[in-house]
Amino acid sequence: METTPPPLLPDSRTEPDGSAVIRVLSYNIRSMRDDTAALARVIGACAPDLVLLQEAPRFFRWRKKLARLAAASGQVILSGGATAAGPALLCSLRATVERTEDTLLPLTPGLHRRGFATAVVRFGGARLGVLSCHLSLQKDERYEQGGMLLDRLAAMGVEHAVAGGDLNERPGGPTFRRLAEGLRDCRATAPWGGEYTSTPADPHQRIDALFVTKGVEVLGCGVPVGHPGVTEEDLRAATDHLPVLAALKIPAA
Fold first, then answer.
1. Three-class SS string for the chain?
2. Which residues pair with 80 in a beta bridge?
3. Phi then psi dihedrals of residue 13, to 5 deg
4. What is the C-alpha to C-alpha distance for residues 151 and 145, in angstroms, rounded to an integer?
5. What is the rounded distance in angstroms from the CA atom of residue 51 to the CA atom of residue 28?
6. pLDDT tens digits, residue range 40-83?
7. Which pTM value belongs to this model?
8. In the Cβ-directed half-sphere of 175, how many Cα atoms lie within 13 Å?
9. Residue 140 φ/ψ, nearest 5 degrees
10. How far apart are CA 3 and CA 70, in angstroms?
11. CB-CB neighbours of 222 under 10 Å
């Protein structure tokens, strides 16, 4: 794992013209089966305005578990969880919520149910669509879900959007390329921090990513290795993926 501290990402702020600089974090939390205190510390140290979770708790008392994580990391629940088959959204109190919607995707017999957690939020004068996903392990189904993701964003009625999650595929794969053609891969646009998201003990592949629509400025994106308050011990203990953190500038609506 890389140990050289990256340059600091910009802090969140609202500009005089109504545009907003925000931090967005995407993180597969493995149903909170690992060290939840370490997980909360990682999320809190990144100071995100939006958190796109995958494998959020889905079963017994799942809302209570997710609420505890949100409170411990300085966030509130926005949408998702069991109602989206795993993806979830958290946000800071800086966000003004316009609407939320959880979408279940078609079920392929013998495979896990998948879904999207989505919302439209505002930061100052900036309006943003948000989508968290966890795509299939099966190649053909994953490719179809990539198309559904693009369709879902287009149907949200927003000019600017961010989508991300666990793609279960590397950048050279067909689904990853499909998303990168329809959107912009934040890490490829403005590399920052670490690159690989799997696994914490042996980072060797990038299968988690954030994407934005045209018009959103990417100020930096990557794994927050060496970020203030984020320790290698916590990253290893929190879950079986590494998070992806991005700083974005959203134009005023």
1. CCCCCCCCCCCCEECCCCCEEEEEEEEECHHHCCCHHHHHHHHHHHCCCEEEEECCCCCCCHHHHHHHHHHHCCCEEEEECHHHCCCEEEECCCCEEEEEEEEECCCCCCCCCCEEEEEEEEECCEEEEEEEEECCCCHHHHHHHHHHHHHHHHCCCCCCEEEEEECCCCCCCHHHHHHHHHCEEHHHHCECCECCCECCCCCCECCEEEEECCCCEEEEEEECCCCCCCCHHHHHHHCCCCCEEEEEEECCC
2. 88
3. -165, 160
4. 10
5. 10
6. 999 999 999 999 999 999 999 999 999 999 999 999 999 999 99
7. 0.97
8. 27
9. -70, -45
10. 28
11. 26
- Summarised one tens digit per residue, pLDDT across range 87-115 is 999 999 999 999 999 999 999 999 999 99
44 residue type, one letter: G
Q: Find residue 120's DSSP bridge partners.
A: 99, 129
CA distance 1 to 206: 13
| The pair of three-digit structure tokens given for residue 212, joined into one six-digit string | 């934005």
